[in-house]
Every structure is written in C-alpha cells, then in structure tokens.
From TrEMBL:
<dbReference type="Pfam" id="PF07980">
    <property type="entry name" value="SusD_RagB"/>
</dbReference>
<comment type="similarity">
    <text>Belongs to the SusD family.</text>
</comment>
<protein>
    <submittedName>
        <fullName>SusD family protein</fullName>
    </submittedName>
</protein>
<keyword id="KW-0472">Membrane</keyword>
<dbReference type="GO" id="GO:0009279">
    <property type="term" value="C:cell outer membrane"/>
</dbReference>
<feature type="signal peptide">
    <location>
        <begin position="1"/>
        <end position="23"/>
    </location>
</feature>
<dbReference type="InterPro" id="IPR033985">
    <property type="entry name" value="SusD-like_N"/>
</dbReference>
<feature type="domain" description="SusD-like N-terminal">
    <location>
        <begin position="98"/>
        <end position="241"/>
    </location>
</feature>
<dbReference type="InterPro" id="IPR011990">
    <property type="entry name" value="TPR-like_helical_dom_sf"/>
</dbReference>
<feature type="domain" description="RagB/SusD">
    <location>
        <begin position="323"/>
        <end position="465"/>
    </location>
</feature>
<keyword id="KW-0998">Cell outer membrane</keyword>
<dbReference type="Pfam" id="PF14322">
    <property type="entry name" value="SusD-like_3"/>
</dbReference>
<dbReference type="InterPro" id="IPR012944">
    <property type="entry name" value="SusD_RagB_dom"/>
</dbReference>
<keyword id="KW-0732">Signal</keyword>
C-alpha cells in the first residue's frame, strides 16, 4: 500500500487561510487576500465570507493530513477516536502487519514526545482553534454579539468548535482533572503567540464560557447539514465538559434537555446492524458528516482503518477487534453481539453497504461524531452519580429495550453495581465511536486488556497512568519558549 501526498487547503470566496506547522501553529497574519480588519468589516454585511471559512473548519475534522503529517493515521477527529478507543482498551489490535499502531498500543508512543502520535492531535486541535479565532475576531471579538442573525450563528459555531478542541486537548493531554495543574496554552486572539500553559481550571472555564455563549447565540439556528454544530450539539459538549469536571448535576440537567427536546430518536435494533454508513438515514445521529466523492477520501481515513469492506488495513492485515473480555460480557441474545464476527471484527456494525471485501476505494460512507444514544447513557450515568437511581434505571431501560429481550435485572441495580452497568453498556453501545476513553476517565476505571490484544494483554493500567495520555509534542517544546516539559 502506497502512501499518498495531499496538499491541504480550504478556500472562501476571498479568503485563503494558510496552514503552517511547528512554530506556525498560531501565526499572527493568517490571511493572504484580506487583512483581519478588512475581513471583519466586509463580513458585517456579507456573511458569505465567514460562512466559507467556517465550512473550511468543519472540513479540517475529516481531511487527510490535518495533523501535519503524511501518516495513515492522520485524518482528523476519527483518527483521534481510534487512538482513544485503543487507549481505553476497547479496540484491540489483534493482528499487526503495517505497524501504524504497533508502538502506540504497546504504550511506547504516548510517553515519547518525539513521536507523531503526540504531534498530530496537538496540531489538529490547535489548527481548529486558530481558525475559530479568525472568525471570532472578524465578528467583533470574544465579547461581541453580532447584529446579523447569520453572523451570530457563525459566532456560535466558532465558539463551540473552539470549545470542542480545548475539551479534547484537556482530555487527552492530561491524566485527570486537577484544577490547579498547568496543562495547555490558551489562545483566544489571533495576535497571541507562544503562550505558557494555563491551569486546568482556566482551560475548563474557557470551554464552559464558549459553550454557554454558543448555546445562546444559536438559540434560533436551524442548520442545513448535520456536520454543523447546533444548540443541541453544543449542549452535549457542555454536558461532557461538566461530567469530566465532576459536575454531574449540571451534566444531568443538560442531557435531560436534549432528550426531552424529542429531536432525535434512539438508534433502532435494525440500525445497530445497518452499517453506520449513511447520515441521511440515521435520525439518531446528532452530529456527523456526509462524505461524497468530492472529498476524495480513500485508504487514509477512518473507513480505511476499520472497515473490512473498504480498501483498508482492516482487510489487508491490521485487524482492529473488540476487546475479548468486553465481547464476552455481551449476552448472546443482545442484538449488539451480532455486530462482530468470529475474529471479533465489527463487520456488522461498520461497513460499506456493497459488502465487497476490500471493495470501497473512494470513501462515501459517512462519519458519525455524536448520536443521541450516548446522551441517554451520559444521562443515566450522571443521574446515578447524583442519587437519581430510579431515573438512571429508567434511562438505561429505555436504551436497552430494543437491544436485549429482558431489562428486568436493571431495576434491582443500585450504587456501584448500577454505575458499573451503565459504564459497561456505554462501552458496548459506543464501541469504535471514540467515546470509551472519555467514559474511562469519568469513571476512573482501570483497564485490563483481553487475550486478543497483541500487546500488553492482561496488564492492569489505571485511568490516570501516564501511558494513557498523550505528551506535549517535541515541536511545541522546541518552538514555544514558555513550555519546556512534556506534561
């Protein structure tokens, strides 16, 4: 399999955002055809300029090389999702031929700040942050509320995407939530460069503020495509933020709001075996992207790593399977047991509908970023953690009714047993979707890999072990004089 080289760019009608690397993470003059001031003035009456810029930011979430490398693991959010599911132990590398994940799953890459695995997500998320800062500055700055409705919606989307990026940075580059620990530099202006690390509390304060602003700014926003963040997605991101902070009360209340809105139905039993491949026939998807031939994705993609029915590493010899211990925990009469084959590959959960082994070359199967089922599970989790055990049981029953023949056992679960069941069901339901790592940290779990992992099977690793987080990359330490350590 040959690597391909892709020159990445995204355009607005009059604006070209250049993308540097290393010291150019947050260059101060990132526009070529318009100055920042001219863009701000022009966008006051012509939202088309910034609409194109925001569309470009969404493209960063799935384009190849957005983390600044030619690695076949560098393709935006879904690339990070694979890494985090591997760190949680739920994705097992059960056959290794091409070595893209070999050092990562062996706990070598995360502790070596020179490895690309640490550089790719750092550059990817800060690239989104830089781009959102361009939009926010053009619309008047962090405290502005644009007069035009469309500009207000664009501001809301930009703030939500900035918060999303800082949230993931705070999750994957730190061991746990320690309010006083210095963890990441915060950039909220286009003119800022090479700042020192801010504390966990300061980072989460910005995430919370941005998402609260986004929810308000997008109160009347009706999106035209599911790749766009809307108010419900912003609420979900804020609920995840609160839960990560240990603020389960506010996380519970927000998830209640999303569920009670009635916008999204639960994923049905049929859909659970339907391939997770079409955003237009997946009403439970809250956030995702409709991929077409125009994007030109192929081998270097999530499908190119995970799907047996795509021209992929899954087909050619880098097998990603469900952890055997987790698979054995799924009852035989659970619909979700059928998502996996005898080699524990997800051949009936994620697949190109043509079902030709190694067949799909140009990827048009879609990406899911968030679905309502995870909100039910987060709601149940935070309900249980705030003493609302009946509510937690009922939410879990709602989710599982179409998945297992009988849910009667749930009504007898209380205390740690109830919380453990919710955590287990979160891992089963959302396997391969990039959510297990977040749940592992929220529940302060210890992972113990099953026997089908090629590397480190049976080794107990607690959620806050340094091996389960990424290191601040060498490039940042070299080019930012205010940061001199990997942690």
């Amino acid at each position: 399999m040959k690597k391909r080289t892709l020159i990445l760019s995204f355009f607005t009608p009059l604006l070209f955002l250049t993308v540097g690397c290393n010291s150019d993470f947050l260059e101060t003059s990132p526009t070529e055809f318009l100055t920042q001031e001219q863009l701000g003035e022009a966008s006051q009456n012509n939202p088309d300029l910034l609409r194109g810029t925001v569309s470009g930011i969404y493209s960063l979430m799935f384009e190849v090389g957005t983390g600044g490398t030619t690695d076949h693991t560098d393709f935006g959010q879904k690339g990070v999702d694979i890494w985090t599911d591997m760190l949680s132990g739920d994705i097992a590398l059960s056959q290794n031929t091409y070595n893209w994940y070999r050092n990562f799953v062996d706990y070598q890459s995360t502790v070596d700040f020179t490895r690309n695995e640490n550089y790719i997500p750092w550059r990817y998320y800060y690239r989104i942050i830089r781009s959102t800062n361009i939009v926010i500055t053009a619309l008047g700055g962090n405290d502005a509320v644009p007069a035009l409705a469309e500009n207000r919606w664009l501001m809301g989307q930009a703030k939500a995407l900035r918060a999303y990026s800082y949230f993931y940075l705070a999750q994957i580059y730190t061991r746990d939530y320690d309010a006083s620990r210095e963890i990441l530099p915060i950039y909220t202006e286009t003119t800022q460069q090479s700042l020192p690390k801010s504390t966990t509390a300061e980072v989460y304060d910005l995430i919370e503020s941005d998402l609260q602003d986004a929810i308000s700014l997008m109160s009347d926003f009706n999106r035209t495509a599911k790749n766009q963040v809307d108010q419900n997605v912003a609420k979900a991101l804020l609920a995840y933020t609160y839960a990560a902070m240990g603020n389960n009360e506010d996380a519970y209340l927000l998830t209640e709001e999303i569920i009670n809105s009635g916008v999204y139905p639960l994923t049905t039993a049929t859909e659970l075996l339907g391939g997770f491949n079409n955003i237009n026939t997946s009403p439970s998807w809250m956030w995702g992207v409709d991929l077409t031939t125009d994007q030109g994705l192929d081998l270097i993609s999530w499908w190119g790593q995970m799907d047996l029915y795509t021209y992929s590493y899954q087909w050619a010899g880098d097998r990603k399977s469900i952890d055997r211990t987790l698979f054995n925990a799924i009852p035989s009469d659970d619909v979700r047991k059928g998502q996996f084959d005898t080699q524990l590959r997800p051949v009936n959960k994620f697949y190109d509908p043509n079902r030709v082994i190694g067949g799909q070359r140009v990827v048009v199967t879609d990406y899911v970023y968030m679905r309502i089922d995870e909100i039910y599970l987060l709601n149940a989790e935070t309900a249980a953690k705030t003493g609302r055990e009946t509510e937690a049981q009922n939410r879990l029953i709602q989710l599982l009714t179409s998945r297992i023949p009988s849910t009667s056992y749930i009504s007898s679960l209380t205390g740690n047993a109830l919380q453990d069941e919710i955590y287990k069901q979160t891992r089963i339901e959302l396997w391969g979707e990039g959510k297990s790592y977040l749940a592992m940290k929220r529940n302060q779990a210890t992972i113990n890999r099953g026997t089908n992992h090629l590397f480190q099977p049976g080794v107990a690793v607690p959620y806050n072990d340094p091996r389960l987080k990424f290191s601040i990359p060498q490039a940042e330490i070299l080019y930012n004089p205010n940061i001199n350590d990997q942690n």
